[in-house]
Amino acid sequence: MATRDPLDFDVGVEEDEDGAPSPSSPLSYFERDRHVAFFGMLYDLMPYHYQSQEINRLTLAFFTISGLHLLKALDRVDKDRVASWVLSFRAHPINQAELKNGQFYGFHGSRMSQFPPDENGVSVCNAGHLASTYCALAILKTVGFNILTIDKESILISMRNLQQPDGSFMPVHLGAETDLRFVYCAAAICFMLEDWSGMDREKTKDYILNCQSYDGGFGLMPGLESHGGGTYCAVASLRLMGYIEDDLLSKNATSSIINVPLLLDWCMQRQAIDGGFQGRANKSSDTCYAFWVGAVLRILGGYKFIDKIALRGFLLTCQSEFGGFSKYPRELPDLYHSYYGCTAFSLLEEPGLNPLCAELGMTDLAALGIL
Questions:
Q1: Which GO molecular function entries does the Swiss-Prot or TrEMBL record give (predicted)?
Q2: Which of 233, 241, 232, 246 is nearest to 202 (CA)?
Q3: Domains of the chain as residue ranges with CATH
Q4: What's phi and psi for 240, nearest 5 deg?
């Protein structure tokens, strides 16, 4: 690993002879070694194109490090150094009274959101973010750090400051959109910390159920169009919270709190004629939805119904000769779609990959704390 901070930024990019970024070419089989090289490169040095995502540095780190773990290449990671680096993003209250000042004392997304105290020693706008906290805890579990040794009380008590009267969550105390993405982050945080005091579970459950649409999928908010990402956040949250069982289709689905047959039908309709999965009706297939929708089907017990050969064929058209995956076929790879391309192949039980914990979006080994 380079001597700079993990996931520092580079100033170079591959270009063709005309100065344009080189296009990727599809390969006929899963190129594990190229993907290891791709994630290893991003672990050592991030291309400068990611500078605009500096505020999401912990998210980029999660995709990179968890990607290497999926590929059984975690030996490329300096685990102790990564753990220390992640812990440096914690937002700490000065005292117990601050836990009720409305701020969230989780993890910052990057150095850009960490501010020094003012002249009176008061931390202004120096709180954490739900998504960054989920990613931080997921990274720590991936590198084998015992997250139960950290001060979880300040995370969980202050997280309740973000829950709204309708059961949804804001990601940060300053105010932002409230939707299923942050409900999922809150549920995953409580699950990983093995403590549900950070939320009112009944209110959260009711909010999730209000997001199920007439067609069976879930919108990101009540009344919105069904969406693959929203549906994953809803189903995974309910599973983590213990409100639905694993493999519902093998049990009495009619007694479930969600409409399972309609949800299964909606998910199955998302596999398009090209074999890939779309996030919404009448949209193009996109690599990441092979995870977002595929993981829902895995949780429900319906993954066996998809056309796995066709899905694999689609994903291979999105695989780059440089390693990684693109959003659409034969485009340049990016970190986000590369990670979810690998998770999709893990769901397909591709040799050379660690199995996936569908509910947490990381390897089973990391979820169970086995390294």
A1: CAAX-protein geranylgeranyltransferase activity; metal ion binding
A2: 241
A3: 40-116+126-368 (1.50.10.20)
A4: -65, -35
